[in-house]
Amino acid sequence: MQSVEILSFQLCPKCENEITDFGRTCRRCQSFSALDGLIVTSKYTENNLDRLVHLYKYRFVEDLHVPLGRLLTRVILQARLPIPDIIIPVPLHARRLRWRGFNQSQLLAEYLGQNLTPGFEIPIFSRLLVRRRYTPPQMKIKKYSDRLTNLQNAFEINLSKNSLLNEKLATSSQDLQNKTILLVDDIATTGATLFECAKVLKKNGAKKVFGTVIARQEIKT
After folding, report:
1. pTM to 2 decimal places
2. Which of 202, 195, 145, 217 is nearest to 37 (CA)?
3. pLDDT digit string (tens) for 138-177?
4. Domains and CATH numbers, the chain
5. Residue 204, SS3?
6. How far apart are the C-alpha atoms of 126 and 108, rounded to whole Å?
7. Of 82, 126, 138, 151, which residue is least crowded by CB atoms under 10 Å?
8. How wide is the angle at C-alpha 107 spanned by C-alphas 190 and 42, nearest 5°?
């Protein structure tokens, strides 16, 4: 993993045209995006990173979350992203979770929570955001407009009393009020999943929502 070259700059996650500090959404795109910024670790095809991600997600090699988590930690610290109050992984639908056996984004989020600020563990709210609808994988959908439609109303806030880890109680979306959130996923293409999750979190009181992914993958046409 040391051979993977992390990106030396970050782009606006919406237009991908403007270099910004820690991947902040540029001014022209702020009115179109609930996501305040996105940190991307590396190019998808950099030193077999695509193969490692494939092994992690589709060959169920769970232990790869450690080296991949190290990459995320390196690039977040390099980019000087504001330290979040809460880390939230992009949730899987229960059907896909049963098939895979683990949420790959949750394992990455847990690694970041333990290692991003050594000696101070950042809370992981892995059950606060849930995927209410089973949707076809985004990578199989080519048109951006279809990707957005695919994810409409797919996510919601879980208000059950056992929605948080570590036996904390969550009785309402007050847990998000005025918080800075780090949203964690493995791969982004158009970013539609992150944008939709950020919209739900902002609607329920989050102050800032930043995202981080291992890489952005180009859509093959």
Report:
1. 0.90
2. 195
3. 666 767 667 767 788 889 998 765 444 443 444 456 778 9
4. 34-216 (3.40.50)
5. coil
6. 11
7. 82
8. 45
